[in-house]
């Protein structure tokens, strides 16, 4: 598993220890803003994360108590199948404002990136209301797709 050893007492350094690779924040983005909760949904993201890296990052995020998983049953192909459902913990939800600001900054830096126009317009006119709605949807397990 990727090392998350503490390199210094600097809070930015510590944040990068946890989220400083190219995949971890994208997993949190997918949960918070796309409503993804299952392994196969993460695999379907545009960035094409490899299965071994996805499994590693999910395990690390769970060990650090940023996400939590539970086993759920689903009926697929006329048989019951057990799957893990991933959700943000309170600590993970605490990263949502940071991720939202990165999403908006990234689109402002490169307008060719894909953002649902309604999301970006709402951010400009009602940032606090949008953030509150995203946070509440995660706290109440609503699995909304915001972008």
UniProtKB/TrEMBL annotation:
Q: What are the residue boundaries of the HTH hxlR-type domain, all occurrences included?
A: 10-114
PROSITE patterns per the UniProt record, alphabetical: HTH_HXLR
The residues that cross the membrane are 86-105
Report keywords, A-Z.
DNA-binding, Membrane, Transcription, Transcription regulation, Transmembrane, Transmembrane helix
Q: Which domain of life is it from?
A: Bacteria
The protein's name in its UniProt record:
Helix-turn-helix domain-containing protein
């Amino acid at each position: 598993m990727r090392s998350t050893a503490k390199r210094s007492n600097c809070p930015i350094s510590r944040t990068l220890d946890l989220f400083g690779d190219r995949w971890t924040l994208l997993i949190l983005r997918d949960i918070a803003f796309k409503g993804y909760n299952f392994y196969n949904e993460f695999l379907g993201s545009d960035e094409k994360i490899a299965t071994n890296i996805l499994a590693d990052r999910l395990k690390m995020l769970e060990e650090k108590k940023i996400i939590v998983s539970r086993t759920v049953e689903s009926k697929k192909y006329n048989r019951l199948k057990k799957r893990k459902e991933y959700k943000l913990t309170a600590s993970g939800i605490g990263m949502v404002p940071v991720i939202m600001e990165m999403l908006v900054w990234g689109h402002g830096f490169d307008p060719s990136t894909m953002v649902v126009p309604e999301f970006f317009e709402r951010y400009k006119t009602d940032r606090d209301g949008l953030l509150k709605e995203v946070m509440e949807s995660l706290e109440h397990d609503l699995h909304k797709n915001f972008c």
